[in-house]
């Protein structure tokens, strides 16, 4: 009996290796080109120009398009063209000799010309491909997307890593947006009227061509129609309830030529819709709490009267920022990037069915009220100016 048990145990032990299949479908990285950034531009003859920044390995060679853009740590830059993105991707193998490996890619950068024509067709491959992470950043640039590869990283070893850190920390200023591939496809889904994506540029004031997140890019459906400056972008974020932090600069009470910096601690917003006598009305209510971070004046801001002036001024600045994006969306772009249609369809589903086909004409006519409830939590450790 004991002998029979030993035989069974022995057979089980010998059979275990047969159950361990290992990584049967693994991909050897030695034969792959690890992509860290992707750029899409309009090429010649209506083709798509596909450019990538590949992480430099010990045996990486200079690229056929000029190598590593003068900075060894920036990696190798490769590019190809094709009738479609997939065609261009495969054509790149003719130059690289390696298949591209996407899971480590940080961002997809879209050039101005390709963004004007429509971004849904060029993003389709990345949305379908299992290798591409849905949390990959998507950005637009005013020039050619491949020019962003010329940027020299400052605090990080690779521009891709620095760009990733910049976008993750966008909430510290709330003057740009950070949009992933998943965010982008959600904005463009269900025949939405438009989208707002990150805008990236080369800093014109930096001779080393540093990266600069500068406002946002506005899309009507999936076509680029304009851009927002940093304060208009924050107005957009206020309207969407996406302001995380940032600094509001306002005149010091009693000393208008000097400034006070208020640090945003928290904020939220609510959008309400109403239909009265056939007229559409929307109310954006923003609640914000800030703290006094800095004053360049000698006014005693601990004084209740001065503190009330400060709260009022802060509310006026926020209202102005929100109004700037509302006016631009209604008057210049005639595109509902604010989500009013979504709110209207929830509260008045039957009425929405009657006007949704003509929403592009009805949206600019809507009345928009802005209410800002401004609060100041504290004035810091210094109770009176020195």
TrEMBL record:
Its main location: membrane. Coiled coil: none annotated. Residues 214-380 form the Spore germination GerAC-like C-terminal domain. It is a lipid-anchor. InterPro entries: GerAC_N, Spore_GerAC-like, Spore_GerAC-like_C, Spore_GerAC_C_sf. It holds the Pfam family Spore_GerAC. It comes from the Bacteria. It comes from Desulfosporosinus nitroreducens. NCBIfam families: spore_ger_x_C. Belongs to the GerABKC lipoprotein family. PROSITE patterns: PROKAR_LIPOPROTEIN (PS51257). Keywords: Germination, Lipoprotein, Membrane, Palmitate, Signal, Transmembrane, Transmembrane helix. Residues 54-75 are annotated as: Disordered. This is Ger(X)C family spore germination protein. Residues 57-75 have a biased composition (Low complexity). It is found in: Membrane. The keyword Lipoprotein applies. Residues 25-201 form the Spore germination protein N-terminal domain. The chain crosses the membrane at residues 7-24.
């Amino acid at each position: 009996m004991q002998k029979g048990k030993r035989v069974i145990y022995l057979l089980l032990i010998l059979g275990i290796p047969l159950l361990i299949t290992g990584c049967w479908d693994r991909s050897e990285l030695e034969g792959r080109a690890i992509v860290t950034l992707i750029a899409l531009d309009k090429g010649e003859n209506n083709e798509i120009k596909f450019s990538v920044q590949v992480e430099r390995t010990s045996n990486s060679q200079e690229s056929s398009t000029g190598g590593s853009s003068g900075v060894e740590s920036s990696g190798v830059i490769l590019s190809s063209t094709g009738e479609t993105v997939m065609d261009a991707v495969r054509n790149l193998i003719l130059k690289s000799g390696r298949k591209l490996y996407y899971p480590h890619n940080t961002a997809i950068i879209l050039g101005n010309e390709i963004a004007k024509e429509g971004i849904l067709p060029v993003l389709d491959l990345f949305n379908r491909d299992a290798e591409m992470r849905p949390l990959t950043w998507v950005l637009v640039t005013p020039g050619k997307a491949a020019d962003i590869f010329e940027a020299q990283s400052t605090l990080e070893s690779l521009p891709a890593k620095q760009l990733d850190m910049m976008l993750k920390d966008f909430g510290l200023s709330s003057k740009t947006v950070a949009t992933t591939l998943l965010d982008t496809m959600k904005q463009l889904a269900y025949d939405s009227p438009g989208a707002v994506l990150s805008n990236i540029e080369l800093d014109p004031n930096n001779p080393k061509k540093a990266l600069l997140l500068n406002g946002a890019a506005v899309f009507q459906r999936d076509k680029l129609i304009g851009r927002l400056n940093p304060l208009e972008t924050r107005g957009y974020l206020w309207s969407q309830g996406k302001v995380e932090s940032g600094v509001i600069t306002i005149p010091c009470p009693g000393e208008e030529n000097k400034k006070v910096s208020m640090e945003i601690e928290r904020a939220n917003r609510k959008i309400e819709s109403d239909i009265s006598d056939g007229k559409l009305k929307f109310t954006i209510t923003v609640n914000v709490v800030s703290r006094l971070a800095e004053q360049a004046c000698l006014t005693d801001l601990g004084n209740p009267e001065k503190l009330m002036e400060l709260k009022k001024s802060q509310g006026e600045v926020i209202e102005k920022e929100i109004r700037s994006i509302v006016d631009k969306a209604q008057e210049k772009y005639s595109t509902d990037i604010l989500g009013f249609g979504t709110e209207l369809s929830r509260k008045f589903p039957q009425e929405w069915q009657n006007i949704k086909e003509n929403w592009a004409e009805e949206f600019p006519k809507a009345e928009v009220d802005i209410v800002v409830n401004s609060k100041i939590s504290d004035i810091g450790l210094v109770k009176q100016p020195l």
